[in-house]
Amino acid sequence: MTEAPLRTPDGRYLIVRGRLWRSSNPNLPESLRLGFVAELMAARREVGAARRAEDRERLARAGAAVDAAKRALGERGPVWWDDGAPDFNRHLVKNTPYAAWYAARFGSE
């Protein structure tokens, strides 16, 4: 069983290899979230199939479907929090306000 990714203390980001990735909106109703996750997984499978088929048009449609699902989940597009904090999606943790917390937990990397 794989270990769950580390989350920032405020729950806004997952940390993968020292980089922040925006988490899904925790305020989504579970039934809605599950539907969006199912759409995302289907779109990702379609991306793989399009790549294997070397079909650029199909790949573009599948990529757009992945983007739409990630936006619906709150992982892309406007942030889901409302306190005015900036978005650090895809930033290295060490270059964000989470740097001290991360260093205290894991040491400097």
Radius of gyration: 16 Å
Question: So what's the overall shape?
Answer: globular
Q: How would you characterize the largest beta sheet?
A: 3 strands, antiparallel
Strand order of the largest sheet: 1-2-3
- The whole-number mean of residue pLDDT values reads 95
Low-confidence stretches: none
Q: Give the amount of beta strand, in percent.
A: 5-15%
Measured distance between first and last alpha carbons = 26 Å
The count of strands amounts to: 3
Draw up the topology in text.
Layout: E1 6-7, E2 13-16, E3 19-22, H1 30-53, H2 56-73, H3 99-106
Antiparallel strand pairs: 1-2, 2-3
Helix pairs in contact: 1-2
Description:
A hairpin with a 5-residue loop joins strand 1 (6-7) and strand 2 (13-16). The protein has a domain at 28-81. The two termini are 26 Å apart. The mean pLDDT is 95. The chain has a 3-stranded antiparallel sheet, with no helix packed on it. It has helices at residues 30-53, 56-73, 99-106; strands at 6-7, 13-16, 19-22. The chain is 46% helix and 9% strand. It is mainly α and 109 residues long.
